[in-house]
């Protein structure tokens, strides 16, 4: 079970605290005011709702006890729902379906799409393997999820994609924890790890993520919720 411990290691970022504050408040639909039309999620096991198990049906998340409270295993690394589900529920949207779930594609992906894959890394698999760090779970990464997302929008958006996705919530992460998990698993030192982060490339990724997040912002958001 070492693998699942690595993959399911929980890293809670301040973003989640920020977003979850109103969700955990008494108003169960606190995010409804935001008027989100869809939620698009990128990330790892913290957010995967069924992508990894479609790539690898033998993954432990395809069996109980995962999904015990949902009456069947769904690919969530949890016995029940994940943060993204509660966020969707609070926004009064359906749970964003897993990108690799063909049933979701069939239904048009209403409410958004979840591109997160358990075990995925921020850096591309090739960048890690060039340093002798192997992703033992999946070869998906932030880059490959972004490619999925662009090809999804290419096939679903009509002319003005920016306009169409304007009122969407983009959840970028948590992602990057597994880069460290695998590096430590392959006995890299902290110095080797620091050298691994190609600042320019990450900066570009982060700037890009900010662009899509800000592009889609149609409401001002404070710690108290949407205005
Ligand atoms: C990742 O890709 C490499 C090279 O194509 C392949 O050998 C390996 O099995 C893949 N790993 C996973 C977990 O899919
Ligand atoms: C999306 O469409 C544009 C314009 O047709 C094209 O340049 C781009 O490569 C496509 N991207 C993906 C990921 O399919
Ligand atoms: C990492 O180090 C441990 C302890 O020395 C060793 O047992 C293990 O095989 C090493 N792992 C790799 C991938 O080299």
UniProtKB/TrEMBL annotation:
Cross-referenced InterPro entries: GDSL (IPR001087)
Gene Ontology molecular function terms on file: hydrolase activity, acting on ester bonds
Signal sequence annotation: 1-25
Keywords: Glycoprotein, Signal
Keyword Protease found: no
Domain of life: Eukaryota
Pfam families: Lipase_GDSL
Similarity field: Belongs to the 'GDSL' lipolytic enzyme family.
Protein name, per record: Acetylajmalan esterase-like
Biological source species: Populus tomentosa
